[in-house]
Amino acid sequence: MKTVHKTGHLFLLYLLGFQITLPAQPSATNPSMEAILASAWADSIYLQMKYDQVFLDQAKMDLPRMEELEFRTETQNFDPNRQEYALRLQLHSTKQIKAQAAIRAHQRQWQEFRQEAYLENLLYQRYQLLIALQRNQQWQTHYAAEQALLNDHKQIIEHQLNQEGEAALAKLLRWEDKQASLREKQRRLAQERHLLQQQLSDCLPSTSSLSPNWASFPDLADLQARASEWPSPLLSKDQQRRRLETEEIALEMAEEQAEQRNLLNFIQLRYTGDNDPIFRDRLTLGAGIRLPFRNSNQVKMQYLELERREEERKEQQQQQEETRDWAQLQQRWQAQVELYQQAIEEVQRFEQNYTPQHLINIGVQDAEVILQAQEGLLKRRAQALRYEAEALEQFIDLLLLSGRMTARPYRNWLTNIPLVGVK
After folding, report:
1. What DSSP string describes 205-222?
2. Is residue 201 part of a domain?
3. pTM of the full structure
4. 4 lies in some domain
5. What contacts 337, CB < 8 A, 6 or more positions away?
6. How far apart are alpha carbons 336 and 124 in whole angstroms?
């Protein structure tokens, strides 16, 4: 009579819970998720952009009132006694100075926007890295459980070879196929782990040989509650870019208009030497007045106006598209969370009905039947892992589209823990 075969120790540990992690124990030297995210502020390119911002803030770049001082001299009939000298001072109007000041302020806004956009990209990459590391650890645990199950199954088949002959040999061949498939998955997982470790080393060079501790990694219920607090997205980076481009065209139009309305072109002081004893020295003061024709810059202004309207239309279109994308992404996120919850419920139902002890209690004596039930449980857990990974990726996309990834105060949106020491 067949007896129930005892399963491996690692497999029994896996049966105790769904999210057992391998292999590192919590350690003070392991990088936290917050440390990985905070490393974005130490990026060399981001720091250089911060230095450029300081230079832009401190540099004296306002338009001066006086543009240039021009000196002219002329000799009439090649007579040195009839020499003329002139000083011409060209000026900027108050409107020109104000228009240029507005342009400089807009350039500072552009610089700040580029910093925030670059920082957002750095954080997005690090969030993806966190999720990938978490997923890699979960699959390590899962494949270890599959390997333990295969080892137990092989022992049963080897025991059956003397009794069942070719039937047991056929089982062994099928086992070899499963083992080869699992080894291929484990090799790919190891390669992915190596690449992820390199990415982690790029973020935190001192932790290149360490494994992060994900004891505080949130479940989807926490993330679902957090996402429910976002009824509508903030101004996204794409919308901010469109708005800045529209404002830039409006400022260019204002600068053009200020230049056209600068009627006082220059002030001139002229000295003329003469042989006439009565009017030997003559000193005159003059000014240059510009009277531009009304339509002199009309074509350029019309082109700028058309460009401004086009940018406004694109900005409105961008806002409508992002509003639609936001609603669709929220629906997909909710649907993915529901799929994960249903998968977990299926795991719990299957585990409750087909535990090894329960099968033994109802009279099942075939060890292969018990292992087959545990194989079905692993398949259901694998599906739940896939749903969870997709839901986490969609949460990061939702966070990105919401415009809150770089919202102050800075925080880890997965755990809602503030990022200390960054600004």
Report:
1. GGGTT-----TTPPPHHH
2. yes
3. 0.76
4. no
5. 220, 224, 391
6. 20
